[in-house]
Amino acid sequence: MKSILPLEAQSLIGTVVRHGYAPATPRAHPAPTRPLPLRIATPADAETRIGIIHNARARLNVSRHRPVPLEGCEHAMPGSHAELDRALAGFAANGVNALVIDGGDGTIRDVMSAALRHFTGVFPRVAVIPSGKTNALAVDLGLPLNWTVAEAVEAIRLGGIKERAPLEVWRPGDRETSLRGFIFGAGAFVRATGLAQTTHRFGAFNGLSVGLSIFGAVAQTVFGGRNNSWRRGQAMRVAPVGAVAVEGPQYMLLGSTLTRMPLGIKPFGRSRGGLKLLRIDAQPRHILAMLPALLGGKNDASLPRNGYHRLDAERIELTLTGDFILDGETFAGGPLTLCQGKPMRFVVP
Q1: Is the pLDDT of residue 46 over 60?
Q2: What is this structure's pTM?
Q3: Which is nearest to 8 in space by CA: 51, 54, 67, 61?
Q4: DSSP 3-state assignment of 151?
């Protein structure tokens, strides 16, 4: 039986929570040894076969009518990780060489994480419909926030391409990574993401929710007293390859491969590609005074003197005593490796 049913024959399967699919326990993955596909499908391919993944629980899709199937495209509306895996397996078996992902950052993470198990020859180019809560990748790509599936399908055939390399999370003993995303955070970032969920309930999304979360995190840090749990930080070991390892309590870790962050903030400094990390020591000093330089991307010598450290690294070994966030979803910590994956091609108008 084919894995991908006509859209009108499908129903939502499984419980969908938070950012789209019922969260699965992250599987462990060893140091990166598995190569990505040899080449990526391009508009010059003789035949373009398009597969569309709809997340019916994405913020904007909840109030929309059921999507209308587009002629010549395969459609899937998975309701769980298992359903998503079967849909992608069916797409690959049917020769799909371009994907449309209709959902938020969490949906994109889930699709990217599962797709390489199935597309082992030519990896599809990807078009993103920003229908989630923050849509950080769409912001970085400069996509219209009102982009439609039909417009994305047209862009696959006629539009341009931007490359972005995902951030990969590996665990000891893994043979392949099942976690690929674009924004990683630990320490206070986990709590700040919880604040973002609160702002969503009050109708704040995209850049506004990011701004309110930053404001809330700073307020908790500044006014909570020196020994509050925000300021005390979290014990962890951070060991960038080629740099000195740091072990002890850290206020926050933030990592990304995006070139542009929501709300125009620049926590890593000037805009650039590659894997970038911001590490803030526990008991952050002069946080209100440092905030303009920190978020504005300024190369201010007072930042590292006060415990705000930026660095670029191809690979970072971590040991976390608490959870971490990847594109809005919470995962268990422990020993981890962060690295930059091979570039993927994203369709733009």
Answers
A1: no
A2: 0.81
A3: 67
A4: helix
